Amino acid sequence: MADEQETFLSHLVELRDRLIRILIAVGIVFVPLAFYARELYSLLAAPLLATLPAGGQMIATDVVGVFLVPMKVALTVAFLVVLPYVLYQVWAFVAPGLYAHEKKLAMPLLAASVILFFVGMSFAYFAFFPMVFGFMANFAPEGVAWMTDIEKYFSFVLTMFLAFGVTFEVPVIVIVLVKIGVVNVVKLREWRPYVIVGAFVVGAIFTPPDVISQFMMAVPLWLLYELGIVLASVIVRPPVPEAVGEPDYRPPTDEEMNRELDRAEQRSRDQAS
Q: How far is Cα 218 from Cα 196, in angstroms, rounded to an integer?
């Protein structure tokens, strides 16, 4: 019991140390980025500013919002910059408890997760935002000044980044589920109609209430699910008995068992005589 408590405490100490390293890394990157917080926010707001009508602008309804929001953007960028280091610390914490074959699979999946997350964010920034903001600008009634608060805009953009980042993780999730035996490829193909419906439900929940936004999240989610099925069928192949030298097993009949027992008894009598 004492050994178990000591092991548990050692894990807590290690977890604390790794969290401190992550916070220090984020802080080191955040300090220089803080001097460019205004430029970073301008870059983040570029898709909206490009679609605003002539003379349109963003507003700040909070006294300290013009300072806090750019700082939040700089902090978010700092975390994204050190995200590979954060995942490395997570990996170093859980790796001792994994088997060798699990480590071989975890490293490529971890790298793919980081890449896909950034690809999802890029898709949101370069494709989703311009189309959605353009649609909103054209749909706004004549005479209505379409402006948004910078805090609300940051919250919206951050939510979309997370939504699309997680959406693009679908192939990794599918491969992991198949690899650990939770589901097989055949079952995933059978679930295809439900996944398509679920993709549009997710799009309706996490995107603005317009058809374009829902399609721009639902369609990639469905296509990435299909990609996950293809990759899982290639990466996770079930072993074939003939290929690994496992002969088909057939239980012996009663007659065969009786003959084998008679031979064993006869051998025993011969050895005794």
A: 8
CA angle at residue 58 from 56 to 62, to 5 degrees? Answer: 145
Is 41 in contact with 73 (CB distance < 8 Å)? yes
Alpha-carbon span 13 to 196, nearest angstrom: 44
Q: Measured between alpha carbons, how far is 117 from 85 in angstroms, rounded to an integer?
A: 15
Residue with tokens 């977890």: 15
- What pLDDT, in 10s, does the model give residues 163-222? 999 999 999 999 888 887 888 888 889 999 999 999 999 988 888 877 888 889 999 999
Q: How many CB atoms lie within 10 A of CB 56?
A: 15
How far, CA to CA in Å, does 36 sit from each of 41, 73, 129, 158? 9, 10, 23, 19
* Segment 93-105, tens digit of pLDDT: 887 777 777 777 7
Q: Rounded distance, CA 52 to CA 103, Å? A: 49
User: 3-state SS of 79-129?
Assistant: HHHCHHHHHHHHHHHHHHHCCHHHHHHHHHHHHHHHHHHHHHHHHHHHHHH
Side chain identity at residue 80, one-letter code: L
Query: What DSSP character marks residue 95?
Result: G
